[in-house]
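Q: Please design a sequence for this.
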């Protein structure tokens, strides 16, 4: 278990490094900058009380090289094999009413599979968003509920996501 946590931490560090280099490249508008360096594939967007929430999903078992050097890919592949207990990474990026990224707060995720099995986890701040890992290996529709506490503001959001 300790080894698994070490591997997951290393994956997050690697992804943060990749995201950081994405922010350093190019001149773009403020709108474009908001989506640069985000981890995974956009799966849902919503607006709750004027706050914009964008959810990104990544299966850590499906990492591709996409220009990474061989040493980084070898390390990534070793850390993201099919035996990882929670190989899925879910990120939520929150922007306030003035379109500024929310960098402080607490975010909790409740993920329920089609059989009613529930996973609860607190999101960790990383790469200008809040992320967690989950086990979404079974095919089917997952119900994802997010609660964000941003100072004295509480946001609740819910959506369904299908694993094919």
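A: Design:
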């Amino acid at each position: 278990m300790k080894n698994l946590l070490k591997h997951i931490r290393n994956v997050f560090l690697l992804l943060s490094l990749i995201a950081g280099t994405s922010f350093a490249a190019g001149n773009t508008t403020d709108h474009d900058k908001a989506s640069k360096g985000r981890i995974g594939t956009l799966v849902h967007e919503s607006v709750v009380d004027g706050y914009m929430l964008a959810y990104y999903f990544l299966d850590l078992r499906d990492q591709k090289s996409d220009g990474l050097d061989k040493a980084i890919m070898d390390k990534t592949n070793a850390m993201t094999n099919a035996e990882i207990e929670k190989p899925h990474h879910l990120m939520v990026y929150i922007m306030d009413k003035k379109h500024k990224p929310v960098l402080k707060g607490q975010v909790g995720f409740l993920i329920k599979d089609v059989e009613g099995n529930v996973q609860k986890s607190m999101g960790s701040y990383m790469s200008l968003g809040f992320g967690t890992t989950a086990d979404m290996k079974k095919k089917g529709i997952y119900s994802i509920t997010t609660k964000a506490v941003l100072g004295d503001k509480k946001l609740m959001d819910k959506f369904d996501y299908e694993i094919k």
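Q: Thanks. Anything notable?
A: The mean pLDDT is 79. The longest strand covers residues 140-150.
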